[in-house]
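Sequence and structure are no longer studied apart. To make this concrete, we show below a single chain and its fold as tokens.
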Amino acid sequence: MVTIFYGVAGEGYGHAIRSKIVIDELKKRHKVEVFAGGKAYSYISPSCPTNRITSLRFVHRRNSVSIIRTALLNLVRSPLVLIQLVKIIRLIRKKKPSLIISDFEPIVSYAALLCNVPCMSVNYPFLNNTYLRAYRITPNLKTKIDYALTLLINWILCPKKKTEIVTTFFH
């Protein structure tokens, strides 16, 4: 039986709902250790043992993410995030997972990178260039800048993915 660590982003319920379905399937054949914070923890933990972690947060202003306020909030929370990272690294060394799956959860992604464990990322279609080409999306300059910023944030939050699963309702 393979041990898998699965990290779920704590912002909102979208990652949690998607991940819970995947986790339930994985648990049929593997030992799965779940890490989640925020709303993801409150959604997943009643039905599945879950390690509570400090999640990065987004600050919204006028129905949009405020990049500066989000960066400042997470900078203040960074000592808690570092403590979580150390705890997860210790668990990786103790339990030796074969794979780490991250549904946009950066702490487990960095732990995988630092411990040289393969990491798989569950992601959105708009973060995938193949998707954009397939649907012939030709963004204007502002959209291109937003897209570049989104890719940069994705790269910072989920570094060195071995593979990526892109989920979508469209086909």
The CA atoms of residues 40 and 46 lie 11 Å apart. The two ends are 34 Å apart (CA to CA).
